[in-house]
Amino acid sequence: MSEENKHRATAAAILPLVGGAANVTSVAHCMTRLRLGLRDRSLVQEEALKALPAVMGVVEDDTYQIVLGPGTVARVTPEFEALVEAERADAPEEPAAPAGGSDPVTAEELAAQGAALRAERKARNATPFKLFLRRIANIFVPLIPALIGCGIIAGLNGLLVNLQWLPAVTPALAAIASGFMALIAVFVGYNTAKEFGGTPILGGAVASIIVYAKVADVEAFGQHLSPGQGGVLGALAAACLGVYVEKRCRRWVPESVDVLVTPTVTVLVSGLATLFGLMFLAGEVSSWIGDAADWLLAHGGAGAGFLLGGLFLPLVMLGLHQALIPIHTTLIEGAGFTVLLPILAMAGAGQVGAALAIYLRLPRNTSIRTTIRSALWPGFLGVGEPLIYGVSLPLGRPFVTACAGGAFGGAFVGLFNQLGTDVGSTAIGPSGWALFPLLDGNHGLAQTIAIYAAGLIVGYVAGFVATYWFGFTRTMLAELNAAPDEPAPASAAPLATEDRVAEKV
Which of 190, 209, 218, 411 has minimal CB crowding within 10 Å? Predict the structure, then answer.
């Protein structure tokens, strides 16, 4: 089967298991996940979905997220969208419901209603802060592929320059690697307006002011502006202001002149505010973020690394990691790399080490061991969702010990930052082994790679040791290692029987 047919087959297998095209309200994807808006989540056949060979796991959030892995998700998504459109085009109109009485409600229908109510309650419980962070993530996530591609090219160019190879080619590579970063504010402005309900091109137009060379002729707060001052934070603020102005204009501008007045007023008002306020303020905030990161790692590198590496998985579970995306981007824009990502990537190393310990501690649990075998290699490459949601989190204690592994790995990398050796990444998105091509620092690529690799090893070992010795109670081990035809011990805690864990896996 060709690659194209394989991805089409994956999309075709997923569609009926999520309730068909009629149940799909939106389709998008990020680095690893197919993100679906669904009308009724009770129609999802989750166990059958998880059983598909291409599916590494599922995550329920504001969207229903199917983990397919990097590369695969970008190829499956357009096939899935095409199938949704085709099925909608071929679907006959539904007849109106007959008047009068209805059939008795079945137990299955009651269960479906209960699932829908649970989903509705979960949606109501979404806090405004978390929803805001998701919207911020929606602005930056589409930029990640370009950040990765340009970051790898920048690393390759740096290597060629240091080796003094291909001197006629390196200027071209430098231009290719730097072009996107020079205009990233425009893309941020475009996506911001799109996300918050404005006209995307107007958001890009307002944000483009920040990178225009002639802003150096403008004086604000007693000093001349610099092209790019404020960066992505300034673009974010400028585009948000543009959306607000645009929406206000549409309330009072007559339709006959809307096409002339609204864009003009939006760009003019937002542009003046950007030049005489937002660029300066955002520039100060960007400088503070860079200085704060440098100070944090210079004065408390090991301790800061321990906390960051240990808390990153819980932050992911709570959705709070999305607040770090603009910070990473700001650091990359200012210093050329983010020193936070290699530390946070240690959380994945702790997760891998914990999975290896679980595999050895549960020799008779074929269900969990099978899941680990299939999810371990994606885990090494930085795709941690299958191990998190399929193994450690359902088991409980191993999730905590995996965090401990990430903490020790983060402390190791943070220590070297404290000693003056910056270990950074030129892009966000990848972690684990996939981060190697994006590494950069202030003491040469070889030393940076060596420190990061050693940090991964520390994370693996710490996660393994912590989980092997402290990840299970005796009751859990007895219960989870029980043969399928053996009864669980009577004193076993009801939290993690083999059947229940197998269902979650």
Answer: 218
